[in-house]
Backbone:
């Protein structure tokens, strides 16, 4: 039998609407990279995805939340750029808090699961 001290419960959070994924860890990471680099193209490269896939994700998130999450400026002599909107910054912060609470919850479930196995009751409180 597996040592119960080594059992871990894992999970991920996705926000969905009408059966479609709107936001998850990967999309939040994309937004964070756009914020850090000031570029959708550089963020896409850092995540090993195409520019089109990154742009489509940004567009889908903006449409899902009825608010643009990235403001872009056209390239040219000074180059273009991308900046996160206040809505995007709030969304990232709220998602990270939700993700932390989810991890805390899973940690509590791990403890309860291990205790249920040790006591032999098979009941998680």
Residues:
């Amino acid at each position: 039998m597996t040592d119960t001290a080594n059992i871990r419960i894992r999970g991920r959070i996705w926000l969905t609407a009408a059966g479609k994924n709107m936001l998850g860890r990967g999309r939040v990471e994309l937004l964070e990279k756009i914020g850090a680099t000031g570029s959708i193209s550089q963020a896409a490269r850092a995540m090993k995805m195409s520019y089109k896939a990154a742009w489509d994700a940004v567009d889908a998130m903006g449409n899902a939340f009825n608010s643009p999450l990235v403001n872009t400026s056209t390239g040219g002599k000074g180059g273009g750029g991308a900046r996160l909107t206040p809505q995007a910054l709030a969304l990232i912060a709220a998602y990270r808090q939700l993700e932390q609470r989810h991890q805390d919850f899973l940690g509590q479930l791990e403890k309860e699961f291990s205790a249920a196995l040790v006591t032999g009751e098979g009941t998680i409180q």
User: Anything to note?
Assistant: Strands lie at 14-17, 20-24, 70-73, 81-84.
